[in-house]
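Objective 1.3, modelling of assemblies. Example input:
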Amino acid sequence: MKRKWVGRSLVALLLMLTVVLQACSSNNNNGNASESASPSAPASNPAESPSGEATQEPSELEPYEVSIVYLGTPQKDDALVEEKLNEYLKEKINTTIDLRPIPSAEYRQKTELMMNTGEQMDLIFAASWAGFFGNVTKGAYLELDELLDKYGQGIKEGLNPLYLDAPRFKGKLYAVPTNKEITQGLALMYRKDIVDKYNIPIDQINTMEDLRPWFELLKEKEPQLILNMVGAQSQGDNIMYETNSSYRAIGPKYSKMPLLLIDFKSTDMKVKSLLDPEIVAINKKEYELYRDYYVKGYTNADAATNTANLADLRKAGQLWVQRATWKPGAEIETKLSTDNKYDFVSHVVAEPIVDTDAASGSMLAISRTSKNPERAMMVLNYMHTDPYVMNLLVHGIEGKHYTKVGDNRIELIPDSGFLPGTFWVLGNQMINYLKPGQPDDMYDEWEKFNNEATRFPLLGFVFDDTNVKNELSALSSIMGEYAALATGAVPNPSKVIDERNKKLETAGIAKVKAEMQAQIDAWLAENKR
Amino acid sequence: MSAPANAKPLNQISTGSNVALNAVFILLSLLFVMPVVLVLMVSITDGDALLKSGYSFWPEKLSSIAYKAMFEDYGTIIGGYGVSIGITAVGTVLSVLLMALFAYPLSRSDYPYRTFFTFFLFITLVFNGGLVSRYMVYTRVLDLYDSYWALILPLLIVPFNVIIMRTFFQTTIHPAIIDSARIDGAGEVRIFTSIILPLSVPVLATMGLFGTIAYWNDWFNALLYIESEHKYPLQYLMRRVINDVQFLKTNITIAAQNPEMMSKLPDQALQMAMAIVGMGPILLVYPFFQRFFVKGLTIGAVKG
Amino acid sequence: MRETVTTMRESIIEHKKALSYNELTDKRGGANMKKPRSKAISNLWKYRYLTLMMLPAVVVLIIHSYLPMFGVFIAFKNVNYVDGIWGSPWAGFDNFHFLFQSDSLWRITRNTIGYSLAFLVINLILSVVIAVALNELRSRFVGKLYQSILLMPHFLSMVVVSYLVYAFLNPTQGFMNTTVLDWLGIDPKFWYSEKDYWPFILILVNAWHGIGIGAIIYIAAIAGIDPEYYEAAVIDGASKRKQILHITLPSIQPVMIILTILQIGKILNADFGLFYQVTLDTGMLYPTTDVIDTYVYRSLLELNDIGMSSAAAFMQSVIGFVLVIVTNMAVRKLNRDQALF
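Predicted structure (tokens):
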């Protein structure tokens, strides 16, 4: 007995030591974890960028290596591309580049670890769907307004101004979006050959209900088709809200379904939740419709669990219509994804709106741990203005990885050793060379598209979830449990909707709604538009 | 006088029982191996056939595209094999050795610190500082980022296995043996190497097997700590291929701009191929360990 | 010094004699009482070799497990990147609230513990039975073959297993619906919507996946049993059944007990792959398949709050720890040697 006592107390001592160590170190704020703090003093608010110390003239610039952490698969020839970039940028701004691609599936986890340990990084890819806003509140990125003004003129000129409204938190800019299509509309995309065969007036089909007569027809005539493909990849509310109302999602989405919505055409910006009668009505109507389609056999029987890949099914010719995001060139992309087997036509059912999520889907930020943010911004500026730099990063070295076939056109060399797939990830995509299948005026179309897109009234507003984390965690779980409602595989959807909503109520959705409303009101007051 | 190791004939079960038992095992084996065979078949099934008719033992159409996609970058794959084999060999040997060295004193009832150290070990089994803090220790304190040690260290001591080893030592090694050796004048180290280890071959082989499996299959540590392409072990590389494939498939924009990539993405077949390739080497190595799970190795121990 | 072949009873008596010899040399009580302080030092010296042997492993454990132990505090803090783990503000028990405020708390706890116990008992019984049975086969070669085959499922990742299960239970193309039920004349079932079948399905899959490797430990244990016991039993005229009951099983009992105690320490943890991948994360099945690990994962997927996930892990650890201590105490009462400590 006595021995065990001694043994146990020794271990307890060990544990206590860790506590003491803990307490001691919390006095040296920031001591161990982040040895490479940026020149500015650490604070508990997202750090401010240091006031100018770097000079403008290349001859006066000190050599510095800018690391770029981005979403991409490491390629064999990364080092070669890096070399070329270094040659070029050394001459211009005495800078070398360290490319650090991280595979997509690991990106979030790895970058979080790197941020948690205060690792030194300069440019880092960020996106709304990859935890950008959460990281901002935790202080991962530097504020960019000043830097942008000083060294990012080219960026400001190239980007649609709406872009710079999105990645803001409490009014300050924390990342620079990639220049491409700024948002996407929602469309129903059809296989051209089927549309032609049956003379389907796709321009008149604006809701899922409108598809009914065609489902009926095709069930008879084309039995090999899956008429209404629903599966793990397309789960979520699809186009329910967009085709039945002007309510749009705001705030967190769970299982691709929002908890809160707002009428983007309204003037009073009142937040609605899933419990509000108008929303419940839309839910019930659409889910009953889906249930009907399921029962009638228009929807695949394994809708609730299907994991098959849409691309594969498309290529195998089993699909004829899909809900798809739309931007100029979408039909061509889809055609390419079927190995050019089928042509597609589409009809936009929900106009493209630029909201915060859409505009911040692909950005580059500057890490708090950067030792020379000015230089990082300069490099970023090059990425937005210099086609040479951009094409190196995205396509590789001419002759080795691609051949030039026209003034602004290239063809990629297969198996060349460089194919990172980063065309949506970095810089300014509009200065890239065009590839086979992309129309000559693609970038003009994109610009036009961007300019014509409607601005979501709350663009730039970001929900701070600190006060409602507990409620959100419970709500997240409930939404996951009832996600199958949207597939039609659940019998008695209206009853189940009521069941779900009751649970949501108990979990505190009203509190989240109130919090959201309060934050929106405050934001509107500050940003009188 | 000890009986010869083949005392079995005297003590065998009846022929009838043997037949019955074999029948049961054959049935069981079929149930266990069929799914694995299915995995093999799917890995060579053509993608379109998979979509249309699902999994089948007799695929409509065969295709080696999954294996081609995986091994096309064979330079990297070969390197991955090399890394995996190296890490597994070194790791397993070190692991068994260190765990045995730790477990043996724990099993000695006269060792005064055994309770303390058992507790010391047990705490690590139950309490975990979490991924972030471990990452910090490895990369900041130990500076092991992008180093092979970061792949070996995490799996060296498995508390679960250490406790099993301790139990084995306790039950199979008669205390009288140790005492008689001590009386004969042997030191602790000698007792360990010439008595304990030989007597514990089954458990050492078991831990060797477990260690091999653990090291061979580990990809997570590579994900966390390795950045240089040539240092990646096989499992990680294969997993990365799959993850990329899946990511590409869900992102039509990227896929469309890379028609070449699209044609070689068999997804499910790829997963199955990866399972087969990963499993193969272990099953080859396993018979080597099986040799040691044989009775009779402790014969003669209590004598002289 | 050669011992003669003894009967089973006599060898046990010898064993007991040896034990009491050990007790004499044991430092506790007996004639060798010295003053405490110098005893501690003389102990350290006397057992220096054994202690040094443990050193390498101790170093590894410190590096890998104890140094990162400070991460446990993340559960009690509100960590941000600027202050890092050390400097971030304390949050008391805030991070734990989401667990206890949840509607599903009872459900996920019941599921987790229920499955853990079921897995424990069933896998234990099956592994032992297989190990004993394999040992009895006449042909060692055939036995090894079966052993290898039984081990195969263990190497399939849960993702692959989920595909296999899907191939089996798919409503339209699955083996069950198209072949088995068809043959039995029952209507096809939507397996992924019927929550009541899943406890059986999961237990079955878990057993299929785990008894191959579980049996190995017992096979090794049986290999370590001194054949003399069996010889003595044969001479005594004991039947096979008696031999198994009185020699084989008792000899592997310590291993069974230890493994059970250790697994009780993990009772609130579950195989995430099994419960998340194999069920395809189907919401309709949650009432019978949602466990603590999957619930926490789902809740925090979007929130990405490291404090809250640490809190959940901490709670699992603490409860597991307490349970092991309690179980260990109970085992000690019954049979002191076979306890963990």
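The CA atoms of residues 234 and 243 of chain C lie 8 Å apart.
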